[in-house]
Amino acid sequence: VKNYPGLKVALVGATGMVGREFLPLLEKTKLPIGSFYPFSSGTRRQTILFRGKKLPAPGVDFKTLASCELVFFASADEVSKKFAPRLARAGVWVIDDSSAFRLDRNVPIVIPEVNGDRIRPSHRILAGPNCTITGLAVAGALLHRKIGVKEVRLASYQAVSGAGKDALLEFFSQLGAVSASLKKDFSIAPALPKLASRALPRQIALNVIPQVGGFDREGNCGEENKVASELRKIWAAPGLKISSTTVRVPVVRGHSLAVWLTLSKAKPLSAIRAILNRTPGVSVKGGMDYPTPLDCAGKGGVSVGRLRLGATSKEICLWIVSDNLLKGAALNSLQTAEYLWRRGWLKARP
Ligand SMILES: NC(=O)c1ccc[n+]([C@@H]2O[C@H](COP(=O)([O-])OP(=O)(O)OC[C@H]3O[C@@H](n4cnc5c(N)ncnc54)[C@H](OP(=O)(O)O)[C@@H]3O)[C@@H](O)[C@H]2O)c1
After folding, report:
1. Could you tell me the distance, in angstroms and rounded to a whole number, from the CA of residue 65 to the centre of ligand 1?
2. Whose CA is nearest to atom 26 of ligand 1?
3. Which residues pair with 36 in a beta bridge?
4. For 172-185, what is each residue's pLDDT tens digit?
5. Residue 255 catalytic?
6. How is 157-221 classified by DSSP, letter by letter?
7. Do the beta carbons of residue 85 and residue 125 sit within 8 Å?
8. Using CA atoms, how far apart are residues 146 and 166, in angstroms rounded to an integer?
9. pLDDT tens across 19-53, in order?
């Protein structure tokens, strides 16, 4: 869709898991998008549907990106690193879902309802958070501000779509092989065919994998390091103690977290529930009700359940679920753009 009055917007990675989630959101947004330019790796011919039209999604063309007021990146770290700084110098707003700039001191990790006030009009590159920590960063934001969170322990249950489209295709093909084999023989595990795993480190069908990303020397995997450093940055809490085990599970979309928070002081659960209920973007299940990834798939908010006391009077336990492709990526980035627009910092060029 090109050359109408309004904002010129590009999306790099429009054919990926996150990119495809952007498309309906961009169709519905109040941002006055006049021209829209989707890009892919360009390794094969691909099209996407936008406002009822089939648009080609070719390889990235820097000139076109530089002619836009806003560019979303949802592809790979190297792609963001290659183009974003040049675009920023040209005055283009860049909202990046990769991890390329998240720990850059000059780039805020933005969740608008948590720390939108961290954005300055002089910024040009804004990072979206890692999809695993988004749920806790949103759900715990007001608790941290009102009471103080001293320590975080968590285990994640991460959907396969979080690892991109190749991982999801691998999962589906393994499921096909598993179900074919189960039809033949009900004596499961030893009889399962050896399934190829390329996108993920082990078979994900009928399994869980306690590894997300590569390991460092201490034995932490990449996701565990991201969770810690990003939450400290988002909450502006450099001294926050965090330990986590991040786990891939055979779920299509929706990341879940079992979280133990040690608060600065003991508070009754009713007070904690009241704070959670007032936290923007959060819905809290009461009684014995709880959210599951299936309940949250395709929904924009963060859902919390199983609130209870932990091992000490200062520790609380929470179960948090959010859609990794929406609040964990595309929706959050669009909300950041809408925030820029409301502040008058994102404008169509004359
Ligand atoms: N998946 C999530 O839940 C999630 C959440 C938060 C952040 N993220 C981040 O968002 C980014 C996209 O993730 P994803 O899950 O959507 O990955 P994906 O499904 O693998 O899609 C990757 C996209 O990037 C494009 N691409 C690959 N190489 C490119 C290149 N050299 N130039 C331009 N485009 C290129 C691909 O195009 P082709 O179709 O041509 O291959 C595709 O559109 C990643 O940085 C990821 O870490 C993902």
Report:
1. 17
2. 41
3. 9
4. 999 988 887 776 65
5. yes
6. EB-GGGG-HHHHHHHHHHHHHHHHHHHH-S-TGGGSPPPP-SSSSS--TT--BS-SS-B-TTS-B
7. yes
8. 42
9. 999 999 999 999 999 999 999 999 999 999 999 99
